[in-house]
Amino acid sequence: MGKLVYWLLLPLAVAVSACGGKKGTDNQSLLARIDSIDAHGLQRMQTSKSETNFKFKGKEYHSFVSRTPDESLPHVTNEMGDTYVDNKIVLRLTRGNETVLNKTFTKNDFSSVVDAKFLSKSILEGLVYDKTTPQGIVYAASVCYPQTDLYMPLSITITADGKMSIRKVDMLEENLNDEAPN
To answer: Are 123 and 143 a contacting pair, CB within 8 Å?
Structure first.
């Protein structure tokens, strides 16, 4: 009987493992995943690192982005009583051996464009290199309510001399850009 159960469960195990793999990585789902819950019930996003090389105005740039949960930041508790550790994100942008920008972001860096009430219930979810434009090097960032689809899309533009500007991305603008033909 034991061998029969084994032979019946083997195809199921193979099917589950075959269907469970992913060919590519979806950055948004990777960023939104909570990595761990500790003995105190604190939930943390996983640590992530990303490096990108690109050209801007004919020069080579290197971008390094690292997200880590930061215990020193105020914790965020949702309406269900779940508590989350907020993140800090380090952005290092270099051109050759020259540092263009080396900044550690928290959600409070976006307080000029994000409502204080939203910030108080959200965490800094992610920051990724997006593109270059004539105005500068553009990064997409998001502040979100933990474990939900409610987020604030943000855009950070950095000039060649390291000046930074932040703006909130209009959801309509984001949808139009997604639908634009290539």
So the answer is: yes
> Hey, is 16 helix, strand or coil?
helix
Provide the edge-to-edge strand list for the sheet that holds 164-168: 123-133, 136-144, 151-158, 164-168
> Vertex 24, ends 32 and 42: CA angle to 5°?
20
Q: Which long-range contacts (CB under 8 A, 24 or more apart) does 131-135 make?
A: 132/54, 132/55, 132/56, 133/157, 135/159
| DSSP string covering 74-109 | PPEE-TTS-EE--EEEEEEEEETTEEEEEEEE-GGG
Give the separation between CA 11 and CA 147, rounded to whole angstroms: 34
Answer for the pair 28, 45: CB distance below 8 angstroms, yes or no: no
| Predicted TM-score of the model (pTM) | 0.74
Q: Say which DSSP state 62 is in.
A: E
Separation of alpha carbons 155 and 144, rounded Å? 14
pLDDT digits (tens, 9 = 90+) for 120-165: 999 999 999 999 999 999 999 999 999 899 999 999 999 999 999 9
